[in-house]
Design a protein that fits this description.
This protein is an alpha+beta fold. The protein contains 20 helices and 24 strands. It folds into three domains: 203 residues, Histidine kinase-like ATPase, C-terminal domain (Heat Shock Protein 90); 113 residues, no CATH class; 189 residues, no CATH class. Strands 5-4-3-6-2-1-7-8 form an eight-stranded mixed beta sheet. An eight-stranded mixed beta sheet has the order 15-16-18-19-21-24-23-22. Strands 9, 10, 11, 12, 13 and 14 form a six-stranded mixed beta sheet that branches.
Length: 658
Amino acid sequence: MQIDIKGKINEKRLSYNNTLLPLFEAIVNSIQAIEEDSATKPGLIEVDIIRSTQTSLDFENDSTLPSIIDFEIKDNGVGFNEKNYDSFNFAHSTYKFNKGGKGIGRFTWLRAFKNAKIESRYYENDTWNLRKFNFEQTKNGIEKHSLEKVNTSQDRYTHVTLSGLKPEYQKWCNNNPEDIALKIIEHCFVYFLNPDCPRIIINDEITQVVVNDLFNIYTKGHVLSDRIKIRDNSFSVKLVKLYSHKLDNKIHYCADIREVLNDKLSIEIPELDTFLKDENDEKFSIAVYVEGEFLNENVNEERTTISFSKGDVDFPDQTSQTELRKAVTCLVENKLSDQIEELSKVRIEKVTNFVVEHPRYRQLLKYRNNDLKRVPSNLNEEKLELELFKIQQKLELEVKQEAAEVLKFIENDEEKEEFSQEKNELFNKIIEVGNSKLSEYIIHRKLVLSLFEKMLNRREKESAVHNLIFPLRTFSDEIGFEDHNLWMLDEKLSYHKYLASDKSFKQNKQVNSDSAERPDLIVFNKPFAFSNDKKPYESVVIIEFKRPMRDDYNDDENPIMQVNRYAREIINGEVKDKNNREFDLRPNTPIYAYIVCDLTKKLKSYAADSGYKPLPDGNGYFAFNDNYNMYIEIMSFDKILNDSSERNKVLFEKLNIE
């Protein structure tokens, strides 16, 4: 049976995250060639990086390095003798089966590169030979093969040039030689633990990286070996401290001595989303390499994935990735318990400090402490709040469901007493979760009132005061419930049906009018007594703000006359519903007008001339305009501040924020 090499290469695609896999396969082939008994010792493998240009290389900045287009891998292994060449010619060759060879690793070369060129000088049957050939994406695969006898006293060598990295892979290829060295260590880690591991050198013009030295620097010899067993499957585990500036903290699942997959340790141990520290206060990551026959037997041909068992495992010879990960992380927790405990303290302290400043999450410390331990410690404040919000939402849903059960349970005083005695813990939980959200809202109110008071003292512009109470030039359906502070004027205003802020009548979709008059706020309250939108509004509210301490009104700017004009425009205009249908604004629909200002001399004279009466507390005036069925109240800024503070005083006292 013959194999169409082009078809074999085209049947699968190499994923971008495996761009360096062809290089790894070539290096492993070199290692295995050096391991053969007849190979030259000590072993040496050199990897030359060929870039699109070789000028002005700045190795401090990866982004300025030209793209890699070729890799040349040179070794002093046994070479392409007859057995090795025959094995190369057969897909799925079993020649290296005892070394975990699948016989198809070379096919990954042509999935990322245009071709491969091989040149090998070797000694066989008392003769030196030089073999050259190309491996290309053709039906036969082997092209331009030549074999000749040579007279030489030089050493054996094999050069494999992976040529023409395809453009779509170039941008995914690690560009810095040290990064490539680290990837080689990750993939071939178990080989580096062998004292006879060949010396591997990466050459990139003037830069040279000795991968073995990097391995020794980064590990400092800190390798712990252990074993775990899951039913009938046994796994070898090596825990390695990596003193690298790049965070690892991963489980590397290896098959046939090569890394295939990895998992983040932070999935099970959230503390390991950052560096650990040793007894000398040096930072390190923990890399865990896992091997076992189960992994060898279940790796795919390209060594890009492992077929773990899915879901519940029913057979003793099966293992899921989740249970293997949990077993490995349990081992890591035991070996590094002190360091992990320190990281846990830092995490909880960060979350606790955040919660102190955001009381709505305070109850999570009591009811969701384990969830808080899983929040990543390297999040900024915005992302941290997002994670806490998710936990909070789950807790609130749980409390809501429990509260529903409680309400079903309490039907009479006797049952209520029984509930208080037997389910007091649940009752407290419901209260605490609700109180935490209320606490934050109360603190928000206190801060708003403090800001409002400062604005008055600084005599801020009318627009600043307006914007604090309700954002300028917006409609109510454009902002959220917590984005305005209408409660300062009247708690009921927060539950309006429709509101326009600083919009002219002709911009207001509720009123059919061409008037350019622009009320500061116009509010349409929903009809509580009716069940559909075709019925009249319950009421209409007009609010007009004036700059603090303003006393330069002219007759056209008389705020009393302004609200009269607004009322007239509403009554005479054709009110529309949300579907733009004519709406019945009945003659008896009440209109409430609030003029918010400082009670200056001119303002007081306007009120007196219009027959307004002083409010009982002396901080404003009121009147009723029969013509428009409108109640008008002139409210001083001090009155709004004092009344709002008094209404919320008991809440502030409860939180000790008076």
